[in-house]
């Protein structure tokens, strides 16, 4: 192997190493969700540094299955979400509030993941 080929391999490896190191140093995993105040002492440093990223949500203040809609501050988004059907609102609630994946929602509904994915794509187009 020629000296120039070895130098190219070394340069490539060095760039990959530096890129991975930069990524690892500048990113961190999102924190787990904490339901109660017990998790305050074990919160991630990201939430400690930026307390605005953390919110509290008391379900008693928002009765009803779709009460989360009342917390939306963007008036255009709020108006469009209120125009959605109950079936679409149920899908959004399962995804956003309950944290189910598309595959889990499809299993619950007894349909394919592709069907759910298409419904979310349609909802997304409507909301844009």
TrEMBL record:
UniProt xrefs under InterPro entries: RNA_pol_sigma70_r4_t2, RNA_pol_sigma_r3/r4-like, WH-like_DNA-bd_sf
Stretches assigned to the RNA polymerase sigma factor 70 region 4 type domain: 80-127
Molecular function as annotated in GO: DNA binding; sigma factor activity
One biological process term in Gene Ontology: DNA-templated transcription initiation
Pfam families, alphabetized: Sigma70_r4_2
SUPFAM superfamilies: Sigma3 and sigma4 domains of RNA polymerase sigma factors
Protein name, UniProt field: Sigma-70 family RNA polymerase sigma factor
Protein's organism: Candidatus Ventrousia excrementavium
